[in-house]
Amino acid sequence: MTILIVYVDDILITGDDTNEIQNLSKNLSQEFDIKSLGRLRYFLGIEVAHSKEGILISQHKYTVDLLQETGRLACKPTVTPVDINVKLGAGGDSPPFNKESFQRLIGKLIYLNHTRPDVAYAVSSLSQFMNDPREIHLQAAYRIVEYLKILILEIYTNADYTGSVSDRRSTSGYCSFISGNLVSWRSKKQKAAPVRREGET
């Protein structure tokens, strides 16, 4: 299978048939003025990092650009994307806000759901007000942007000390999260058993 993804003047070719990918690239270059950028690293605001364990996608630059665009680059980050003390409704007496600007901001936040599912609920709740946005809705959207500034790294690890009854070797494991999203994990039996101290059985 070979997949060709086209967005305006950005093209991505991928698949599991190397020969077909090369043939497609050759045919495209004969018809259009194209330039190969090599291994995929950035496409439509999504950064791609390759490792032996697989592929990690992120939208770090996209997030920084959004913080800068909204004037929140130097803001104090919030710890949650939603203020539980604020109940959002039609807006009431809250002043109206430019509909096109609000829709554009919500659209950018929706696109972030690819790598930040932790804001999906908050963004979905705000998207219902895109036809008649008010100042209170804008502030709620800014809170989500301010929350995006937080990058929390959590790593958990454990081992069953000499857990194997046959060779006394331990099995250890770890998992790591970035902003609540699982990004890597592993479990492996240790190569050597721990040194037995005097008096241990």
Topology summary:
Blueprint: E1 2-7, E2 10-15, H1 18-31, E3 42-43, E4 46-51, E5 54-58, H2 60-69, H3 99-111, H4 120-127, H5 135-147, E6 153-160, E7 171-178, E8 181-189
Antiparallel strand pairs: 1-2, 3-4, 4-5, 6-7, 7-8
Helix pairs in contact: 3-4, 3-5
Helix content: 25-40%
Biggest beta sheet summary: 3 strands, antiparallel
How many β strands by DSSP?
8
Q: How many DSSP helices?
A: 5
How many angstroms does the end-to-end distance come to? 58 Å
Quote the beta fraction: 15-25%
Number of domains: 3
Overall shape: it is flat
Radius of gyration: 24 Å
Low-confidence runs (pLDDT<50, min 5 residues)? none
Mean pLDDT: 87
Structural class: alpha+beta
Order of helices and strands: EEHEEEHHHHEEE
Biggest β-sheet: strands ordered side by side in the sheet: 3-4-5
Q: Which oligomerization state do the chains in this entry correspond to?
A: single chain
